Amino acid sequence: MSQIKNVAVAGATGTIGLATVHALLAAGFTVTALSRGGSVPSIPAGVRIATVDYSSIESLTEALKGQDAVVSCVAGLALPSQPNIVEAASAVGVKRFIPAEFGADTLNPQTRAFPILKDKIHVQTLLAEKYEQTGMTYSLLYTGLFFDWGLENGMILGVRSRRGTLYDGGKAVFSTTTVATVGKGIAGCLLHPDETKNRGVYIQDAAISQKKLVEMTSKVNPGGWDLKEASTVELVKQAAAAHERKDPNPMSMVGSIFGMYFGHETYGQLFKKLDNELLGIKGMLDEEIETLIKDICTSDPKPSMALP
Q1: How much is the CA Rg of the chain, to the nearest whole Å?
Q2: How far apart are CA 72 and CA 17, in angstroms?
Q3: Best label site of 33, 46, 129, 260, fewest CB within 10 Å?
Q4: What is the rounded CA–CA span in Å between residue 250 and residue 253?
Q5: pLDDT of residue 184
Q6: Closest CA to 54 of 69, 66, 37
Q7: Dist CA 259 CA 275 (whole Å)
Q8: 281 pLDDT higher than 90
């Protein structure tokens, strides 16, 4: 594949999007941030801002002209806008598309069966079709839970408050990646387009369990814990029941998320094969994880973000 130089980022002002912009700039790419409009003070200097309407393929097509690659960092309720971005990218000859995966392994048959992931699965199908039609390639980057975010906001464990829920006893070992490393992984895919073409790419900063994190946290933030227990099997059952009764509240199916990250190993939450070496990702030593935990415990709380 010819060299990728110009990269557009959708969702560039979000947590993952901003980390991606910084990583792309550090790697030498020319970056365009897609924005719905208004002020975007968080975007660093040197980044071009393109105002778009995500509901309009025509608007996106105009904004993506001249781009070699598109990275979608949209999240949550914005995920249904991804097909329009894919259509526009393929129409203007974009070479590589990286969709908003950055979480659980949706190529795993058990995981991809969860209804909550239907928007991501739809985009994968669309990307495969566009490759056959136009030659636009893609990379699916899998990172596990966002490590620093999950410790900051309690999705993995509330290290600052020493509170949390241990799923299935907290014994499951899972892959997890910091927000900054997610951005580095995205840049790495574009620096190695041939090696990452049309496949799942797997990275992690650590493979760890909740129980191990309790032990580490107790070293740097000693004190009593308020820990609850939950069964991922029951949470997955509750999510399936909510889907069957067509519950309009999207949070009613959140139990499936805890299942895919902390449940049975058949969900593939511990990545068996990694692309860390290819993408220049070192991973974290135990001492570095303890430092991360200490930094979170001694800093002010940060805003929440969408689930990966």
Answers
A1: 19
A2: 8
A3: 46
A4: 6
A5: 98
A6: 37
A7: 24
A8: yes
Query: Which pLDDT does position 303 carry in this prediction?
Result: 63
Q: Are 207 and 270 in contact (CB under 8 A)?
A: yes
Residue 92 is which amino acid?
A: V
Distance, CA of 224 to CA of 156 (rounded, Å): 18
d(C-alpha 171, C-alpha 300), whole Å: 29
Amino acid at 213: L
Instruction: Answer left, alpha or beta for residue 168, where phi above 0 means left and psi between -120 and 50 means alpha.
Output: left
Do 104 and 308 form a contact (C-beta atoms < 8 A)? yes
C-alpha triplet 133, 135, 68: angle, nearest 5°: 130
pTM recorded for the entire structure: 0.94
Report the alpha-carbon distance of residue 98 to residue 70 in Å, rounded. Answer: 6
How far apart (Å, rounded) are the C-alpha atoms in residues 228 and 220? 21
241 Cβ contact list (under 8 Å, min separation 6): none
